[in-house]
Write a structure and sequence with these properties.
It is built from 10 helices and 9 strands. The chain is an alpha/beta fold. The strands form 2 sheets. A 6-stranded mixed beta sheet has the order 2-3-1-4-5-6, sandwiched between helices. The longest helix has 26 residues, at about 300-325. The chain is globular, with a radius of gyration of 26 Å.
Length: about 350
């Protein structure tokens, strides 16, 4: 029997190979359906839901709770769910986590807001960043212990801090030593997004000068804030992230009050001379912050937490288990002894 020319025959023309002919033939068969994997991933993600853990750090009175509520248009801050007796300022830093499930257009997200009341409120704030560092490392340790279990869970609960929003008081001058000390230490273990709180207290000229001074201080102290230069994946990412880096720190205004402005109901802060519109980019940069954290970079923030910050912690811990001398506590590169890192009791 003669071999079928279309399938089994060798190349008729010099240089043409059976592989090339097969590729041509497969393209003629029509639609295969490879792109359906996107729909499969979407369905799986919708079933599982999403989770994100955001830490807010800053002195009392900078509007942390208000801004968090404004970001998610829900009462998600610690202060929103506390009684009057609990609202006192703590004597020391105590870290509180509040989780909520937010649903929008069928997308379900578990949001955990980690508040740090007491940070920077004391007369002596030396080393006040250490309890926060221990808390972040404790979440990495908890995830690591779940991961190395022989019978580990199908889906490990993720309490790792994905992003830390650091609130800078609107002084208009430069970063304070406490701001530099905190961000210098914490930028090594978590994604930090600095914001200028209550930016409506500054004029536009003061705001621009302050932002420039803060960027200079960040560079001088080698503080890497999110989005970090070294994690840009390609030229397109670099172009987008350069625009964000040029804008940081975001000058923000938070408000959970609605006002009537030109016939529309808008979130804002009413003053004698008019209304500061929270989502109006000519008034403040809240909309840019929201887009970064939720609409454009949320998954990237989580990926960097997992593949960079947690991975560094995991490798360091596993190396310690193999090499640390008997009777001596292991010291982490961030200067916190192991027994302190493992404890997050405040």
């Amino acid at each position: 029997m003669e071999p079928e020319s279309d399938v089994m025959a060798g190349p008729d023309v010099e240089g043409e190979t059976p592989v090339a002919r097969n590729e041509k033939a497969s393209s003629e068969f029509g639609y295969v359906g490879i792109d359906a994997i996107l729909e499969q991933m979407r369905r799986k993600a919708m079933k599982q839901g999403f989770e994100v853990n955001i830490m807010v750090v800053g002195q009392s009175g900078l509007g942390k709770s208000t801004l968090t509520n404004t970001l998610f248009k829900s009462k998600v801050s610690r202060r929103s769910v506390m009684t009057t007796e609990e609202e006192r300022i703590p004597k020391t830093i105590e870290i509180k986590s509040i989780s909520h499930v937010i649903e929008e257009k069928g997308v379900r997200m578990k949001l955990t807001v980690i508040d740090t009341p007491g940070f920077g409120d004391q007369i002596n704030n030396e080393n006040c960043w250490q309890p926060i560092m221990k808390f972040i490392n404790a979440q990495y340790e908890q995830y690591l212990q779940e991961e190395i279990n022989i019978d580990r869970k199908k889906r490990i609960p993720d309490s790792r801090v994905h992003c830390c929003i650091y609130f800078i008081p609107p002084t208009g001058h430069c970063l304070r030593p406490i701001d530099i000390e905190f961000m210098r230490h914490l930028s090594k273990v978590v994604n930090i997004v600095p914001v200028i709180a209550k930016a409506d207290t500054l004029t536009l000229e003061e705001r621009n000068f302050f932002k420039q001074k803060i960027r200079e201080d960040l560079r001088a102290n080698e503080i890497d804030i999110y989005p970090q230069n070294e994690f840009d994946e390609d030229a397109e990412d670099r172009m987008i992230n350069e625009k964000i880096r040029a804008m940081i720190p975001f000058a923000v205004v938070g408000s959970d009050q609605e006002y009537q402005v030109n016939g529309k109901r808008l979130l804002g802060r009413k003053t004698r001379w008019g209304t500061v519109e929270v989502e109006n980019t000519t008034h403040c940069e809240f909309a840019y912050l929201r887009d970064l954290l939720i609409r454009t970079h949320m998954q990237n923030i989580k990926d960097i937490t997992s593949s960079i910050h947690y991975e560094m912690y995991r490798v360091r811990r596993l190396n310690e288990n193999n090499t640390k001398p008997n009777g001596q506590p292991a010291i982490h590169t961030n200067g916190v002894p192991e027994h302190e890192v493992l404890s997050h009791e405040m």
